[in-house]
Amino acid sequence: MSDAPVQQFDKSLQRLAERIRSRRTVKLFLKQPVSTKLILEAIEVARWAPNHHLTEPWHFYLLGRQSIAASVDLIRVIVTERKDAKVGEFKAQDAATRPGWLVVTCRKSDDALRQQEDYASVCCAIQNFSLYLSEAGLASKWSTGEITRDQRFYDLLGIDTEQEFIVGLIWYGYPKITPTQQRREVAEIVTELD
Ligand SMILES: Cc1cc2nc3c(=O)[nH]c(=O)nc-3n(C[C@H](O)[C@H](O)[C@H](O)COP(=O)(O)O)c2cc1C
After folding, report:
1. C-alpha of residue 140 to centroid of ligand 1, in Å
2. Is 92 in contact with 79 (CB distance < 8 Å)?
3. 41-44: long-range contacts (C-beta < 8 A, 24 or more apart)?
4. I want to staple 139 with a disulfide (CB 3.0 to 4.6 A). Which of 23, 26, 100, 103 is the partner?
5. HSE-up of 189 (CA within 13 Å, CB side)?
6. Looking at residues 81-105, what average pLDDT do you find?
7. Is the pLDDT of residue 72 over 90?
């Protein structure tokens, strides 16, 4: 019997592992715009995340030119309030270089366990989204910066804080510089039990 199918399986496993390993948080992007079609495809894939009770607790807010400009202005305001105008301007200019902006929210629940599980699912969905973009040659940065906790950002995006909370602001685009990363050895993080 030929062992070709097994070899093929190994190859696809290695490819998958390498995709997961090589996805990096990127802070510097090229100006090259990203097609909305590609982002909608990534969101279509993202929603296949594991999800207890199939609550589908996620919502994706894809920002356009006006909402990005308003968000950049808001970053300037927030950082100026917390630090000073110089840092505020620097942070705003930095944010303005990010080509794509996606805000991912989770539906609120009165049940603590449901809330935890829903949040976990949204995190898995964001990882799916990031991996899909990575495979497509793009990169992203998941941010939980100050703006994601500011009521003015919710108002700007039309998000009802009674109903949803922001899990991440995801900046995406074609990477200019891709950093390297490290992880601890597997032996350090695994406990094997009988
Ligand atoms: C929930 C969450 C929130 C994060 N928030 C930020 C953030 O606010 N600012 C930032 O620079 N990176 C943020 N990151 C990205 C991490 O810093 C990044 O994943 C980490 O440095 C490892 O790099 P890697 O993603 O390339 O493996 C966040 C990541 C996660 C999962």
Report:
1. 10
2. yes
3. 41/132, 42/128, 42/129, 42/132, 42/133, 42/136, 43/129
4. 26
5. 4
6. 98
7. yes
Would the pLDDT of 5 be above 80? no
pTM beyond 0.85:
yes
Sorted by where each starts, the structural domains of the chain and their CATH numbers stand as: 29-174 (3.40.109.10)
From the CA of 37, how far away is ligand 1's center (Å)? 25
Q: Does any ligand 1 atom lie closer than 6 A to the CB of residue 142?
A: yes
Distance between CA atoms of 75 and 69, rounded to whole angstroms?
10
Quickly count: other Cβ atoms within 10 Å of residue 23's Cβ: 19
Strand partners of residue 141: 171
Minimum CA distance residue for ligand 1 atom 10: 143
CA of 27 to the centre of ligand 1 (A): 10
- For residue 13, what pLDDT is reported? 96
- 167: tokens are 């899990």
Confidence at 88, pLDDT banded by 50, 70, 90: very high
* Cβ of 24 less than 6 Å from ligand 1: yes
CA of 24, closest atom in ligand 1: 26
pLDDT at 8: 75
CA of 24 to the centre of ligand 1 (A): 9
Cα separation values, 136 from 9, 86, 129, 157, 193, Å: 21, 36, 11, 27, 39
Q: Is the CB of 171 under 6 A from ligand 1?
A: no
